[in-house]
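Running this now, will post back.
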Amino acid sequence: MLSERRLEVLRAIVQDYVGTEEPVGSKALTERHSLGVSPATVRNDMAALEDEGFIAQPHTSAGRIPTDKGYRLFVDKLTAVKPMTGPERRAIQNFLEGAVDLDDVVGRTVRLLAQLTRQVAVVQYPSLTRSTVRHVELLALAPARLMLVLITDTGRVEQRMIDCPAPFGESSLADLRARLNSRVAGRRFADVPQLVQDLPEAFEAEDRGTVTTVLSTLLETLVEETEERLMIGGTANLTRFGHDFPLTIRPVLEALEEQVVLLKLLGEVGDSGMAVRIGHENAHEGLNSTSVVSVGYGSGGEAVAKLGVVGPTRMDYPGTMGAVRAVARYVGQILAES
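Update: finished.
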């Protein structure tokens, strides 16, 4: 375990390196920070931090920079993330509240996160496997043709056309709509098949074929849409950090193009807590020079998806974590109210 004083020296090195982009020397540390010890003591502390792998010397006669291990300890010892200011919080709220549907919410969230953090923003669409049915609408397009509209608690809307085996009357359609919603509204997707399996028996024999067709389409929709979707934005922000990537930025860009990689980066949806993965903690080799800050979002305190940012390890962690958490909170509120 590091002493509190050496931890303070490490914090100062991280803050200065993130702020200046330059390796940090002992003289600069003692001038910029009230460490309460002599430059010689700071040099000794820096030598100890280097021996233990928390900082490194990129060039001879240069100052020191944090390693992945040093950033990890810095993040783990953070007592608080940087709070958003009142104007920033209002700007977030106003920007997101104007969204007209789920695609717009996700799109605005990506742009907002990229602007706030000046990193690459990644937002996962709410997972249908963790969603509940808000409403099922059935509309008659022709005597034997219907439209099924599935609306989820996260504002996602899915539409399907249904060709019925026989004409279906308006009264039967209204009856099916009412019975269907009484069983599935407010229920999890996973529970729906069992809840509707005996529904055809409640209808006259000539209508059962159509009811069965409607139910089959509904269940197919639940299965089809379980695939994960996400949106990414702000990739151009990485070009500002060219010197933070050892050889080239290309491996990072290639990794960001792979949806499977990004979903793994964000982590399991069930975890609503903040996650920070630094450098080589990212399994994908192309992202070993990046850090990922992610958090779950959703309505009612349960995460239905994740959002986060990807940037160089030389990142303003308190500020980035604060922005990611604030945006997730507002997105969750919008979903709850939609």
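DSSP finds twelve helices and ten strands in the chain. More later if anyone needs it.
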